[in-house]
Every structure is written in C-alpha cells, then in structure tokens.
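Dear Dr. L.,

I hope this message finds you well. Following up on our conversation about the binding site, I have prepared a predicted three-dimensional model of the protein together with adenosine-5'-triphosphate. For your records, I am including the exact sequence and ligand specification that went into the calculation, followed by the structure tokens. Please feel free to forward this to your student if that is useful.
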Amino acid sequence: MSVLTMQDTIIQTNNVSVYYGDKQAVKNISMDIERNSVTAFIGPSGCGKSTLLRSLNRMNDLVPSCRVTGSIVVDGIDINSQQVNIESLRQIVGMVFQRANPFFKSIYENIAFAPRFHGMTDRRELDELVETSLRKAALWDEVKDRLRDSALSLSGGQQQRLCIARAIAMQPTILLLDEPASALDPISTMKIEELVTQLKEEYTIVIVTHNLHQAARISDKTAFFLLGELIEMDETAKIFTSPENDKTEAYISGRFG
Ligand SMILES: Nc1ncnc2c1ncn2[C@@H]1O[C@H](COP(=O)(O)OP(=O)(O)OP(=O)(O)O)[C@@H](O)[C@H]1O
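The resulting structure of the complex is given below.
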C-alpha cells in the first residue's frame, strides 16, 4: 500500500463484530473509508447499518448489552482502547440522527451550548462560531434574524440542519449521519443532500440511508450489507451499474429489501 493511500484512509475497521447479548448484529466487517469522501451504508432493515455506524464513535457504549470486537482505527487512534477519551472521540466523530433532536433552547444556544461548556466563553468568539456553523449547514440566511427563537419553532428540515450545525460547531473531522433525511419532505431532503455534497470538502461523511437514489446521488463509495455482513463495498457508480455480487444486484434492482 502506498503512503498516499494510507494517508487517505481515515477510518479503518478490521474484523469488527457487534453483539447485542448473544445476538451478532454485525459480522466481521473490514473496511477502509477515505478522508473527505461520502460513504453510504445501504441494505435491508435490520442488516446492521446503524449498529456499525454507531460503533464508529462508540455510541453503542450506551447500550449495556452491546459488545464490539475487532479493531476500529479513526484518524490513527484505536478507538476501542481503554485510553480513549469518549468525549474527545465524539468531538472528532460527530453524529446526526434520523429524528432531529434539537435542545429545548434557542437556535443560538443549540450551537453555543457545547462549545461554551468546553471552555469557549468569549461572546464574540461564540457569535462567530454560531454564524460559521449555521452558514456551513446552509441555515444562516433562514435564521439570522431569529437566533433567540426556540429551535422548536423551526421546520423539521431546518431542525435537522440545525443539528448538523450543532455537530459542525464542535469542529469534527468525521460526520456520521443516520438516515438524516428519512423523516423529511422532498425539498428538505434535497437541501440535506446538497449540504452533504458541500460538507465533504471539509469533513468525511458516512451516511446510512434507505433511499437508494439518495445513495447513488451523493456518495462516492457505497457499502451493501445483508444480515450483518458486508456483501460488497465499491465506488458508488460501480455498485449501482455493475456490482460484483448477485445479492447486491438483486437489492439495488429492487428484488428484495
Ligand atoms: N439496542 C438494541 N438491542 C438489541 N438489539 C438491537 C439493538 N439495536 C439493534 N438491534 C438489532 O441488531 C440488528 C441490526 O440493527 P440495526 O438497527 O443496526 O440495523 P439497520 O440495518 O440499521 O436497520 P434499519 O435500516 O431498520 O435502521 C437488528 O436485528 C436489530 O434488531
């Protein structure tokens, strides 16, 4: 492997399995994810996409029955090592969930709350961070005159972009998006898709989606999962036009799932 290739890999999973109690939800997954790319996880419901995604920032730690084996290296750090500080990890690897979950606070506070908690107290610095984060999440123009309004006064699509802005404010390297547009109308979905395409200039994005058209539109690489196994991962164009595996072909052509 060339040095350049190694530098380009920002997430490397090696033989990762995830169990809920005795049940194995993710089976021996080894994959490389490139820096500043969009990778889509696709596959039928229950195939382990979200479970694998959540293991990339140790969100599964919150599930007592959950156990992860194998190694996951993120930006050179073995994230399952005892020494890893989970808060720092989640700062590097931000996450946005299917249902927008803004805090019951103002639009401004949704962005400023965590950075302030982590020590940024200068008002001007916080103002700047709020503006930059909202701009990057393509929400600034819609909310700049109502920053003190409750985040809950925003539409569902705006709330989801606010959650993306909130994740961006922590200056992550990687953004994990778990079906971020599945609860949104087509226009809000389009905005999220445009946003993902812009954000990959600065961040590495891994997105779980049920929407195959969405995966085809916005991702560089696509990984197809079935019953906890990674069946095939390749350039998105290849997965959707000439996949190697018959099961991938059957799934993308709508024959099951
Ligand atoms: N907290 C949990 N406790 C026990 N089992 C779980 C838990 N979360 C997920 N599972 C099981 O693990 C398997 C994989 O679930 P996961 O949510 O990762 O799949 P998915 O591909 O993301 O599905 P979907 O597309 O429906 O969100 C499923 O069988 C599911 O029932």
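In brief: The first strand starts at residue 9 and ends at 20.

With kind regards,
A. P.
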